[in-house]
Amino acid sequence: GMGDFEGIKQATKVCHDIQPAQLLMAAINGLGMALGVDMIVGIGDKNQISQGAKFYFSYERFFENYGELIPATNFYRIPLPYAEKPLDLIDANHRKRSQNKRFFKNEIKDQAAFSIKQYVDLH
Q: What is the CA angle 113-101-98, rounded to 5?
């Protein structure tokens, strides 16, 4: 997200206001589903290879949404499929929007899984 902010804004709007990183997680969910992976590890800020003065993305805040910090590490355990906040805990005014976003992310997950399954035989 450090480059073309205008392009990112346009892409996000087309994708139901879902941030690119969340779309990536939806695709990873589908990849895990296709490969039979039920756990991934998220790497916190301190362990990122790419670090610089203009680093705007917090991996900690992002991965906290999907999993839990592994004690005494800077890594996050993320189950696949990852849990989302229950709809009844979302404000009623935002529930329909959240449902639409989830539907879109589920389509991405399913398409990613379908695309990978065509090339991988786990039997």
A: 135
Q: What are the tens digits of pLDDT across the range 64-112?
A: 999 999 999 989 999 999 988 899 999 999 999 999 999 999 999 999 9
Q: pTM of whole model > 0.90?
A: no
For residues 112 and 25, the answer to whether their CB atoms sit within 8 Å is no
The answer to whether residue 5 scores a pLDDT higher than 90 is: no
Give ∠ CA 69-67-61 in degrees, rounded to 5: 75
DSSP calls for 53-113: TT----HHHHHHTTSEEPTTSSEEEEESSPP---GGGS-HHHHHHHHHHHHHHHHHHHHHH
Say which residue the tokens 């398409």 belong to: 111
Cα distances from 110 to residues 8, 53, 70, 88, in angstroms, run: 23, 37, 29, 24
Q: Which residue has the tokens 């039997």?
A: 123
